[in-house]
Write a structure and sequence with these properties.
The complex is a heterodimer of chains A (611) and B (309).
Chain A: E1 5-13, H1 19-29, H2 35-44, H3 63-68, E2 75-80, E3 84-90, H4 98-106, E4 110-116, H5 123-134, E5 139-145, H6 154-168, E6 175-180, H7 204-210, E7 223-225, E8 228-230, E9 242-246, E10 257-261, E11 266-274, E12 277-278, E13 287-292, E14 303-305, E15 312-323, E16 334-339, E17 342-355, E18 362-363, E19 373-386, E20 397-401, E21 408-414, E22 436-441, H8 448-461, E23 466-470, H9 471-474, H10 486-505, E24 509-513, H11 519-529, E25 532-538, H12 541-547, H13 552-557, E26 579-582, H14 588-610
Parallel strand pairs in A: 1-3, 1-4, 4-5, 5-6, 22-24, 22-25, 23-24, 25-26
Antiparallel strand pairs in A: 2-3, 7-14, 8-9, 9-13, 10-11, 10-14, 11-12, 11-13, 15-19, 15-21, 16-17, 16-20, 17-18, 17-19, 20-21
Helix pairs in contact in A: 8-14, 10-11
Chain B: H1 15-34, E1 38-41, H2 46-59, E2 68-71, H3 78-91, E3 95-98, H4 101-105, H5 110-113, H6 115-133, E4 138-140, E5 157-160, E6 188-191, H7 199-209, E7 220-227, E8 230-233, E9 246-253, E10 264-266, H8 272-280, H9 299-306
Parallel strand pairs in B: 1-2, 1-4, 2-3, 4-6
Antiparallel strand pairs in B: 5-6, 7-8, 7-9, 9-10
Classes of the chains: A alpha/beta (611), B alpha/beta (309).
The complex binds guanosine-5'-diphosphate.
Residues 13, 15-21, 56, 145-146, 148-149, 182-184 of chain A line the site of guanosine-5'-diphosphate (GDP).
Chain lengths: 611, 309
């Protein structure tokens, strides 16, 4: 029989989706509510019409909450089955409690997200998934609840599941499972429901019992932050010195070489103990004490690590910060930073962008307010020995404390140094990998620049490296002096193509908006660039003439200028463009969304190839 | 009956107990580093026994760096006091005992004042006074989140203001295992290394590590007063009501508090494995027999806001 394991999971949902009821159910159906608690619940349950007991009272603990009827803080619940022991971190759903949810997520291996089948996918749920993702959770079970109120219809379930899968693919590729539930009567929570004959997947509890317990991301080498130095009360102080700590990652055995940081000196482990008991090896999460072959000057806050896989040692680090205080963040001000087992002085040197946790879009900002996520750069007085949070949830995490009020003001997740994208929790698809050229072609005033600019802004907001080459602007420098005959037009396109190719090779997404009337030269650029999406922005000439944003059609008709594409110069539409936008019949937002979807598909396919 | 009770109690699987142990040891080591004068609140019960065991393990081969602090209401069972003194003597531990003498001399007792007021004076007040008297900045307790609904939200590091009060609406966020132990003058910290343990975990760990506990936990025939559903042990001059008389019943204590507040349960479990077996089949929660939780709705939360441990 395998040893009983411990699974810590987070539960999140919007107010009234039925989360408290679901957890109450889970506890009740696994026999984890004792009878007298059950009786006092029955007593406390308001007359709720259907005569049953209100399971949500099991988890709604504090008086203030009971009065308001909502969960405001993280509550921890415990239950066990024959296969596993579980710790639930039950967290509030509302936006103003983002920080509580992050707290719950910080120690969880998995998230159970709840949705109301009638409401479908709400921005709230996207936010919950994104917060869990930012805090390192890579395994999700989605309970689509209140199925009784949609007559247990399969298509409702499939629809919501499809929408959510679409959203999650923006984050990355977590393990994802869906369960149709009615927590009020327990359908598919612990026992399989007869009312969902079309559903043959596991119940919520079965998922919880079998989900892999993934802890610290990709295990790299040994990380052992030293908590304290232990000395025997009796024997000589030097020879009996032991270093106490909890193993963050890797494995340790007597005889292994370890490097002490910050000294950088390497020695051998001679003994590992839990209490008085000698161990042949030890792995996370054990709290041990170790003795070393050579006496080194090691103290609290130092670290022992594998010599062949050392953590980064830096004073300046990119990080994702969740601000949790009512006082806004002050870039440049002194803060205390607690990382592994020590406090260091430091500051938030730079706020690069605020990240919207509902869409993961980024925008520039001057400060962070309560419950906002930001991409920042922190600076510390002493170097930190760290790993990206995506690789190690212990050495990649820190908290920010106000030195005056002692308040815990922020939680931080260390990002990889730019150029080393492994383990990044955001913008995983940028970095050193190849870029892409998105080429908008079409008549003047067809809408190339408008769509191009909108796509550019969205991609930038999502953290991509992106550039925009617009035909009108290029003609003022790169192609200055070129005319509008076929030869000069082709030369113009070749020059734009050349720049686009260089940028694409360096991981940039390049947006090109240019009339580019000739098919042959567009194909030439496509071949040279390799990663090329052609967007045909099409609108009937009459519509373009009516818009006539730059007045060229009017001037052409008046005979003031010649060689205007569509009027007295040819336009050769693409034969097989990747995307076609009909701007006479669809809105700018629709066209933009269509292009973005295609770009995302391309990025996903590329990520899949490279992993 | 719970799913948990379907497993064979004989196979003691230890992976999750080792994870809980490691977490608690990590917390205890942080406390030793974070505070100038921490103390371990020692209530003599099974949770205190486990806490003390973990503290000794955390700092081996060194000594346990915390003195034990016992708030003695004088209404404790004689067997508990004996166990306390023996433990401290054998392990060479420093013991601080504090009693609210003033209150007792002025006649505070549970029979006269009722349990709520008695607890306030003999436990809460005595605790706050003793922390001040010994300049203790961090008090380590054995409370578990599973015990009571309001405890489910308690932090592992929980700040108390200058009056020893807890503000459940304004707790510090506590992420990962990064504790913020910084406090101002006047504030103190309560620390709960056993936060994530359940009653069953505690007993399984006691079995695994062979930890000594007060004999009151084991069943034997005891002289008790049967009052309604409750079995009240006869000690400290419990006043009998008209027509009541004591009788000998095979019973044991499930939790240990003051004699009057702790009811016994009918049980024949006289060894740790039998207690575990009994617990697995238990359908009544641990605190049911403690009168204080029932005196007011949400009563534990009220006590905690006032500073009760
Ligand atoms: N019809 C139906 N009602 C439900 C279901 N689950 C919960 N509810 C009801 O929805 C309301 C909110 O539930 P609660 O568990 O307090 O939601 P929370 O705010 O997410 O914790 C309560 O009135 C529940 O009885 C369900 O599956 N079906």
């Amino acid at each position: 029989m395998p040893a009983i394991e411990l699974l810590r999971f987070l539960s999140a949902g919007s107010v009234d989706d039925g989360k408290s009821t679901l957890i109450g159910r889970l506890l009740h159906d696994t026999g984890s509510i004792y009878q007298d608690q059950f009786a006092s619940l029955q007593k406390a349950s308001p007359m709720n019409g259907n005569g049953g007991i209100d399971f949500s009272l099991v988890t709604d603990g504090l008086r203030a909450e009971r009065e308001q009827g909502i969960t405001i803080d993280v509550a921890y619940r415990y239950f066990a089955t024959a296969r596993r022991k579980f710790i639930i971190a039950d967290s509030p759903g509302h936006e103003q409690y983002t920080r509580n949810m992050a707290t719950a997520a910080s120690t969880a291996n998995l998230a159970v997200l709840l949705m109301d089948a009638r409401k479908g996918l709400l921005p709230q749920t996207c936010r919950h998934a994104a917060i869990a993702w930012l805090l390192g959770i890579r395994s999700f079970i989605v309970a689509i609840n209140k199925m009784d109120l949609v007559e247990f219809r399969e298509e409702v379930f499939r629809d919501i599941a499809g929408q959510f899968t679409g959203f999650v693919s923006k984050l990355g590729s977590p393990r994802l499972h869906f369960v149709p539930t009615c927590s009020l009567s327990g359908d598919n929570v612990v026992t399989r429901s007869a009312r969902t004959p079309w559903f043959d997947g596991p119940t919520l509890l079965e998922h919880l019992e079998t989900a892999p317990i993934v802890g610290n991301g990709v295990p790299r080498g040994l990380r052992f932050p030293v908590q304290s130095v232990l000395r025997s009360a009796t024997s000589s102080p030097l020879s009996s010195r032991r270093y106490a700590g909890q193993i963050a990652s890797g494995i340790m055995r007597p005889g292994d070489l370890v490097t002490a940081l910050p000294s950088g000196r390497t020695t051998r482990i001679t003994s590992i103990r839990v209490g008085d008991q000698e161990m042949e090896s030890a792995t996370p999460p054990l709290s041990v004490s170790v003795a070393l072959e050579t006496e080194l000057d090691i103290g609290r806050g130092d670290m022992l690590a594998s010599p062949d896989s050392l953590p980064q040692v830096t004073r300046r680090l990119p990080a994702i910060l969740l601000w949790m205080s009512e006082l806004p963040m002050k870039p440049g001000s002194p803060y205390l930073i607690k990382h592994t087992t020590r406090f260091v002085c430091g500051s938030i040197a730079r706020l690069i962008a605020v990240i919207d946790p509902t869409t993961l879009e980024r925008r520039p900002a001057k400060t962070l307010g309560m419950n906002e996520f930001g991409h920042v750069e922190i600076e510390t007085h002493q170097p930190l020995y760290s790993d990206p949070y995506g690789e190690n949830r212990v050495t990649g995490a820190f908290i920010v404390v106000d030195p005056i009020s002692n308040e815990t003001q922020a939680a931080g997740m260390i990002e990889p140094e730019s150029g080393r994208q492994n383990g990044s929790v955001i913008g995983e698809e940028t970095g050193r990998s190849q870029g892409l050229t998105v080429w908008f072609t079409g008549l003047s005033s067809a809408g190339k620049s408008s769509i191009g600019q909108a796509v550019y802004e969205k991609l930038w907001a999502r953290g991509h490296k992106v550039e925009w080459l617009d035909g009108d602007i290029v003609r003022q420098h790169l192609s200055k002096g070129l005319g509008y005959d076929k030869k000069d037009r082709d030369e113009n396109i070749r020059r734009i193509g050349f720049v686009a190719e260089l940028l694409t090779r360096n991981g940039v997404i390049v947006i090109v908006s240019a009339i580019s009337p000739y098919r042959a030269v567009r194909e030439e650029v496509r071949k040279r660039t390799g990663n090329f999406l052609e967007v045909y922005v099409s609108a009937p000439l009459a519509v373009c003439e009516q818009r006539d944003l730059k007045g060229i059609y009017r001037r052409a008709r008046a005979g003031e200028i010649h060689g205007v594409t569509g009027v007295d110069d040819p336009y050769e539409p693409p034969l097989a463009p990747e995307v076609e936008c009909h701007t006479d019949s669809e809105t700018l937002a629709e066209s933009t969304a269509r292009v973005l979807r295609r770009v995302e598909e391309w990025l996903l396919a590329r990520t899949a190839q490279s992993s | 009956m719970g799913v948990a009770s379907l497993t064979d109690p004989k196979d003691l699987d230890v992976a999750y107990l080792r994870a809980l142990e490691a977490e608690s040891i990590h917390i205890l080591r942080e406390v030793a580093a974070d505070f100038a004068r921490p103390a371990l609140l020692y209530s003599i019960g099974k949770d205190s026994s486990v806490l003390l065991w973990l503290a000794r393990k955390a700092f081996a081969p060194g000594d346990c760096p915390f003195p034990l602090l016992h708030i003695d209401t004088t209404y404790k069972f004689q067997e508990m006091v004996e166990f306390r003194d023996r433990t401290c003597r054998e392990l060479g531990l420093r013991l601080l005992v504090h009693t609210n003498r003033n209150a007792i001399e002025n006649g505070t007792n549970p029979f006269k004042l009722g349990t709520a007021k008695c607890c306030g004076l003999l436990k809460t007040k005595a605790l706050l006074d003793s922390l001040a008297e010994h300049h203790i900045d961090a008090a380590i307790g054995g409370a578990r989140r599973e015990e009571e609904r309001s405890r489910a939200k308690e932090r592992i590091y929980s700040v108390r203001d200058g009056f020893g009060q807890w503000n459940p609406r304004n707790q510090r966020p506590e992420l990962w295992n990064l504790f913020n132990g910084r406090i101002e003058g006047g504030e103190t910290m309560r620390i709960f290394p056993l936060s994530n343990w359940t009653e069953l975990d505690v007993w399984r760990y006691i079995e695994l590590e062979n930890i000594p506990v007060v004999p009151l936990y084991f069943a034997k025939e005891r002289e008790v007063l049967v009052r309604g559903e409750m079995l009240l042990p006869i000690e400290h001059g419990l006043p009998l009501r008209d027509g009541e008389r004591t009788q000998r019943v095979l019973c044991r204590m499930r939790t240990l508090g003051c004699t009057y507040c702790t009811g016994a349960i009918r049980s024949s479990a006289d060894t740790v494995p039998k207690i575990i077996e009994e617990l697995r089949r238990a359908i009544r929660s641990e605190r049911e027999n403690r009168i204080i939780d029932h005196d007011q709705d949400g009563s534990m939360e009220l006590k905690k806001r006032e500073g009760y441990f």
